[in-house]
Amino acid sequence: MRTLAVLPSRFQASRFPGKPLAPIAGKPMIQWVFEAARQAEGVDRVVVATDDERIAAAVRGFGGEAIMTDPALPSGTDRTAAALGALLETGVVPFDCVLNIQGDEPAMHPDTVAALVALMRDQPDLPMGTAACSFTHADEIFNPNAVKVVVDDHRRALYFSRSPIPYLRHSALFEADFRPWMAPEQLVHFKRHLGLYAYRPQTLRAFTKLPPHPLEQLEMLEQLRALAAGIPIGVAHTAYLSLGVDVPGDVAAVEALLRERGLAR
Fold it and tell me: Contact, 233 vs 156, CB < 8 A?
């Protein structure tokens, strides 16, 4: 299975302009994501899809490959599809699987990427996939920025939400007198969604032609567009948390995680 990893990366993030070039433990943020993708088993090619020459120059500076895409594209998924199309126009051997690894995930672990590639390889009929890890602390499930996913017995997503799902009907955690504790046998039912996706090329093209769905707009979660359209999403489990960077204040937590893994000082 030939796999392309695309890292969509734009400069004008409203809450953190220039985010892909922000220094994280001595490297630009996008370099951390690029190196994780390149180290992942099963990934054949890694490209950064960007709309800004400053990002492209930085990527080429650390030995990466950048593809320029239209600044008017509405999402990272659209930028991923555009990068795939641009590569195919050059006559490259077609890819069987396309990864969209968000460029603001500097703590993405290569093993997480590899687990998603393995899921798509082992289930050739699966049109789309993503990854999730366990929660380690009960209070994290109440953070709307930590997206939750409920998975069925076949490792396919039932629903994604910013709310804590599943709901524990008989637990003080869900009452007004919230206390940040939970029994391990309860916490195990909560899965934290991570910021990467895998698509079959035809699924990626079809997805970008779908209009935004009301559920997607309510939760601000693009993957709900796929579920609402009946596109199954497989979920690979990983032991490694990945933290996205939305605002400058998120950098410290990411650097702490990288230090914990021995990747930063």
Answer: yes
